[in-house]
Amino acid sequence: MSSTYQLNHLRELESESIFVLREVAAQFENPVLLFSGGKDSILMVHLAVKAFHPAKIPFTLLHVDTGHNFQEALDYRDALVERIGAKLVVGSVQEAIDSGMVREETGFNATRNYLQTAVLLKSLEDGKYDAALGGGRRDEEKARAKERFFSHRDEFGQWDPKNQRPELWNLFNGRKLYGEHFRIFPISNWTELDVWQYLAMEKVELPSLYFAHEREVIHRDGMLLATEGGLIPVREEEKVETLKVRCRTIGDITTTGVWRSEASTLEDIIAEVSMARQTERGGRADDKRSETAMEDRKKAGYF
Amino acid sequence: MSLHIENTELLRFTTAGSVDDGKSTLIGRLLYDSKSIFEDQYEQIATTSSKRGEEGVNLALLTDGLKAEREQGITIDVAYRYFATPKRKFIIADTPGHIQYTRNMVTGASTANVALILIDARHGVVEQTRRHCFIASLLQIPHLIVCINKMDLVDFKEEAYNKIKEDFQTFSHRLDVKDIDFIPMSALLGDNVVEESTNMDWYGGSTLLYSLENVHIGSDNNFIDCRFPVQTVIRPYSDEYHDYRGYAGRIAGGVWKKGDKVTVLPSGFSSTIAKIDSFDGELEEAYPPMSVTLLLEDDIDISRGDMIVRDNNQADVGQDVEVMLCWFNEKPLQPGGTYAIMHTTKEARCKIKEVRYRLDINSLSRDEENKDIKMNDIGRVLLRTTAPLFTDPYRKNRITGSVILINEQTNETVAAGMVI
């Protein structure tokens, strides 16, 4: 058969993800799409729009908000929600702290990362969502490498890596008992480079944070952290500098490292990513706590 | 660099070997030599290697996964790894070789274009090798690459390689595999993985990476028999798209064009394709594995689980389905028992009508006396379904020829079946 009937790898990944998104719409009653404002969740929304065109996406967007946001990320989120006509629900970590549901960490390296899990589970319960779509990718981290597309969670939201359902061909078993739910990862097979190449190919608009800009930062534990908003207490010996940087992932300010970069276009970013010598999660303070940080968080219900 | 992605294809492969065949080292070597390892990953394994008192950096640690696995020194589950060269992007389904090997290998094999079968050059073809090859042929992986590893431990001798190749061929000709390649290598030293070996001048073939980059996968999909399982119906309910009714799905077979005469299963109604739609506009043609939306000229009642086919080339419609079944669950198959069944986008229930035989995968012989199908067993089984399925033989189409069975109490996926 002629080689003209061969998709390139990005189109094949796109087709696989669209298939998974449509399965979710068909198999679940009340699915929600976890939206962090990061490029992976932007990709997810873009794929969802493509999957159900010309109808609206059949998913509510859920943002688990730590309250420590880059302002650009929030602005981008609100504009996107408006444009696609989706419903947005915000699960607030700040409210959970204020109501005493969770207790905030203190100290120089305090983060709200662990609090997100509790708020996520509460939001899923409150909204009676039976499936939560996440932008997790298997290339990100070794615990993610064993994740399924359809990842079954018990009534406590826990992941049991030893007892996952085998996933064959494109048959996805979304059956569950009452009170259980699924985490679904439609872009499991994408790598960081695939995401950037695809976003460039599709000309998807991104928050300006992803492109090189001047920002006040400090050096800590081999990472650069943004000091914006005074969320990171600066130690006496640490010096605040203004450097040209960009984000490779966008999340909570206190854990999202920024990187020195001159990349001002998607093409520059692709060139940079393909030359990169550090994984993107190399800039995540939350993963650096221990060698099994991600595995431990996932078992507890993190996404 | 910008966007030379037009010709980058996606290749999925699975790896199979017994414990200690050097599988993790081979994958680590592929990732490392193809420059797919990041500094922080490399530093992490370098630290771990020296902590453990190992000489040099143990590349096998790159594929080390979960805490539980590291403690026990084993792999629990299928792990997926990624790397790319300018020619192709690769997805590796890394399956453990020990317990539950059948379940894991079948899972990894179900989507693979290529299977790597590892053989320790000192031990040659062993029982596990035969099992792995049988599973690869059962799952219809189109290409096999037999990696004869640890050649450094047999002094890189050609005789050792030839002996293993001959042994392999004496049983592989009984299997249904179209394309088999043999490569002598040392994953530990890197010979013939990415770099050509300087220790085996007698070998005229290509390296593993070269083979993976060049194996022809253009005909791995079925482009002949048009099959479109409907996933969901798209109805925008907006003024602009008032009468829009699109059938969303992923093409499972054949090349589709506007104007094609089609039949809808199970209703049997005929219509014509009015439009192949997508977010990016109308498409001239669609083929596997594209996800598209089909619009028909006639208003027919079609829903999820129905299948659109060509008038003159239809799938088999029936409630008696004969399958080769791989059993995954600790609870054995219950003859006469009822299970939920998933086939393409269709869900139904089925009864185990008869176990024809259990397959002894060591001798490849049929056991018609002891027909108990337990975890990791394979058997030929006749199913009776509550609703008709629209199937093709698995040999003809891996998508329309496959099913999974689900325990209705626990919702676990208990078996995978291939239609005969």
Automatic annotation (TrEMBL), chain A:
Gene3D superfamilies: HUPs. Residues 278-303 are annotated as: Disordered. Its EC number is 2.7.7.4. Keywords: ATP-binding, Nucleotide-binding, Nucleotidyltransferase, Transferase. GO terms for biological process: sulfate assimilation. The keyword ATP-binding applies. The lineage of its organism: Bacteria, Pseudomonadati, Bacteroidota, Saprospiria, Saprospirales. This is Sulfate adenylyltransferase subunit 2. It is an enzyme of class 2 (transferase). Pfam families: PAPS_reduct. It comes from Neolewinella agarilytica. It comes from the Bacteria. The keyword Ribonucleoprotein does not apply. Belongs to the PAPS reductase family. CysD subfamily.
From TrEMBL, chain B:
Keywords: ATP-binding, GTP-binding, Nucleotide-binding, Nucleotidyltransferase, Transferase. One of its GO terms (biological process) is sulfur compound metabolic process. One of its GO terms (molecular function) is GTP binding. The keyword ATP-binding applies. Pfam families: GTP-eEF1A_C (PF22594), GTP_EFTU (PF00009). Residues 8-220 form the Tr-type G domain. PROSITE patterns: G_TR_1 (PS00301), G_TR_2 (PS51722). The keyword Repressor does not apply. It comes from the Bacteria. Its EC number is 2.7.7.4. InterPro entries: CysN_GTP-bd, CysN_II, CysN_NoDQ_III, G_TR_CS, GTP-eEF1A_C, P-loop_NTPase, Small_GTP-bd, SO4_adenylTrfase_lsu. Gene3D superfamilies: P-loop containing nucleotide triphosphate hydrolases (3.40.50.300), Translation factors (2.40.30.10). PANTHER family: TRANSLATION FACTOR. This is sulfate adenylyltransferase.
